Amino acid sequence: MKVGIRKANNQPVAAGGLVTTTAGPDLCHTLPVGRTVKIKKIMWSNNTGAAETLIFGTQDNAAVWVPLFPTIICINTFDGELNEIDLPDIEFANDRTAAAGTTGNILVQASAVGILIRLEVEEYGS
Amino acid sequence: MSEVANIYDNGPISPVARIKENVSVWSEEKWLNYNIDYIEPIPRSRPYTVDLVALSGATVIAANAAIAASVMAVLQMSQNEMLHIRWEPLDDVEGGLWQLGGAARFNPRGGQARVSLFTAIMDPYLATTTFWILGGTPSKDAQIGAWNPNPVALPMARFAFFGFRYILTPLASPPANTTYLPARAR
């Protein structure tokens, strides 16, 4: 089993890593050069007034959205958590060899503005 | 824990020799020979934790940037003393070691290796971070520099040091039995 270093998501810097969705792909974690990363915990809070959805993914090198996780339903006025045991072992990597390779950064596509999200991630490399 | 360790023992750190045994250190282009008078441990603790961001006078270590190497004052030794140290970062930064007034350590032809948070994953006792400081000459002091591999700035770049301090008596002639140390303190 690969072992890495655990940390909280590192974007947006100005908010100390607390992501507030804008209903566009929002950057949650920027991948350090030479490393890969897996999401180990997702925590969200939805107080937008309606049930909403989240999809986690990355971008290709042309900044086109690439979904990697299935849709998560966020019930209105509730918080929610998904832990390591619940999450697929998806490894985000900077694929520089493919024609439209991925950046490896973690982004979230939300259906609404104002959902709060934090992640715990594990980075691999050196 | 063994009472006396091999010099790069991959277990918990131990003294490389006992009190009243000898050590020989390659320094000043020759083997300098000593008898050990005293050994004491240096536990990993706050006084032996150095934040290179604070030491440099900065507020952060910028994204993907470096802090130039500077002398670790806490690791400076007096004449006829020696420090035997292992170390690791406490933050997600990489550390590089220089001695001899700027000569890179852990530095084969392929480049200078660094100590990172990943080091302890495969080397939990940090044996591969071992180095020595022979006291008495400023050029032999350890200098540590830091790199931030993250694409965001970090507020701290802390490194923790632990090991053993030896007090030594110089020997006029090479002893019959000794522990040789590769401390390249010219």
What does this structure look like?
The complex is a heterodimer of chains A (126) and B (186). Chain A has strands at 5-8, 19-22, 25-29, 36-46, 52-59, 65-67, 72-74, 78-82, 91-92, 106-110, 113-124. With 126 residues, chain A is mainly beta. Chain B is mainly β and 186 residues long. Helix content of chain B is 5%, strand content 40%. Chain B starts with 21 loop residues before the first strand and ends with a strand. The interface between A and B is medium-sized, with 15 and 11 residues.
Outline the secondary-structure elements:
The complex is a heterodimer of chains A (126) and B (186).
Chain A: E1 5-8, E2 19-22, E3 25-29, E4 36-46, E5 52-59, E6 65-67, E7 72-74, E8 78-82, E9 91-92, E10 106-110, E11 113-124
Antiparallel strand pairs in A: 1-11, 2-11, 3-10, 4-8, 4-9, 4-11, 5-6, 5-7, 5-10
Chain B: E1 22-27, E2 30-42, E3 49-51, H1 52-56, E4 66-71, E5 81-89, E6 94-99, E7 103-104, H2 119-122, E8 131-134, E9 143-147, E10 158-170, E11 179-185
Parallel strand pairs in B: 1-11
Antiparallel strand pairs in B: 1-2, 2-10, 3-10, 4-9, 5-8, 5-10, 6-7, 6-9
Number of helices of chain B: 2
Strand content of chain A: over 45%
State the helix count of chain A: 0
Would you report the number of β strands of chain A? 11
Extended strand count of chain B: 11
Give start-end ranges of low-pLDDT stretches of chain A.
none
Order of helices and strands of chain A: EEEEEEEEEEE
Number of domains of chain B: 1
Look at the helices and sheets of chain A and give the structural class.
Answer: mainly beta
Distance between the termini of chain A: 16 Å
What would you call the shape of chain A? globular
Strand content of the residues of chain B, in percent?
Answer: 35-45%
Q: What is the percent of helical residues of chain B?
A: under 10%
Please identify the oligomeric state.
Answer: heterodimer
In angstroms, what is the radius of gyration of chain A? 14 Å
Largest sheet of chain B, in brief, is: 7 strands, mixed
Radius of gyration of chain B: 17 Å
